Amino acid sequence: MIDDFLTHRLGAVEEAVHEAAAAEIMPRFRKLADHEVESKAGAHDLVTVADRLAEEYLTAALTGLLPGSVVVGEEAVHADPGVYGALRGSVPVWIVDPVDGTRQFVHGDPAFCTLVALAHHGELLASWTYAPALGEFATAVRGEGAYLNGRRLVSGSPESGSELRVAITHPDYTSPEEKAVLARLEVPGVRLRYCGAAGLEYLRVAQGDMDALAFSWPAAWDHAAGLLLVAEAGGAQYTVAGEPFRVDWDNALPFAIARDDATAIRVRDLLAGTA
């Protein structure tokens, strides 16, 4: 069933993502009323009516395209944390972040996106990253490459001897312990900045516009689409335990994502304190 879906129905998923953004997200961009924005778990963790309605739209559309599948979406998990357990189940799972970069969306910044990934038994099979306000749509299928607006993505490698450009978890979302670990990247030859919408940071690595990322939180909806995108563009990723990040188990954190294997290992070793 999955193989047939991957062969014949991927275009329908892209259409559903386009439609969700057109129906529920873009009509509200820079037009949100105060009552349409709420805080979930603190002042920096925002949710809007666009997040909720876009996730509802995608949940109906995606499960309709692949009968027997389920959705693990950010807003559904916020309402019922038990939903996250579906990632360890036996049925195909859609991993959905309806508005990745909600803070940017709320403040009228176009650097937000919709993220969708399809996984089965923990393996990422396909992903969609759509930044409607930027006109960027990236896709990846396991074993078939990564593409941005139809153009093949190749992450390449950093130029020899150049300063590594690394985006890290924004301090608003880190504990003192996580800040201390991420501070291990503050070494000569590494230029750090704080990340924005995770999905767009993954896209920049897949394009070769960023060299690496270091993230300290595990939420599958933020990472699944980008992990496959970077992998299919030629990149690599490791947790501090030296294993790949997976959506279906508890991972050692933080983890490093990079344009190539050597860079991912270097960043991972710095994070682990073994460099």
From TrEMBL:
Q: Which UniProt keywords apply?
A: Hydrolase, Magnesium, Metal-binding
Which GO molecular-function terms appear in the entry?
inositol monophosphate 1-phosphatase activity; metal ion binding
Any GO BP annotation: signal transduction
Classify the source by domain of life. Bacteria
One Pfam family this sequence matches: Inositol_P
The EC designation for this entry is 3.1.3.25
Catalytic activity, reaction form: a myo-inositol phosphate + H2O = myo-inositol + phosphate
**Required co-factors:** Mg(2+)
Binding-site positions, Mg(2+) = E74, D97, D100, D222
* Membrane-crossing residue ranges in chain numbering: none
Under the heading InterPro entries, the entry gives: Inositol_monoP_metal-BS (IPR020583), Inositol_monophosphatase-like (IPR000760), Inositol_monophosphatase_CS (IPR020550)
Q: What protein am I looking at?
A: inositol-phosphate phosphatase
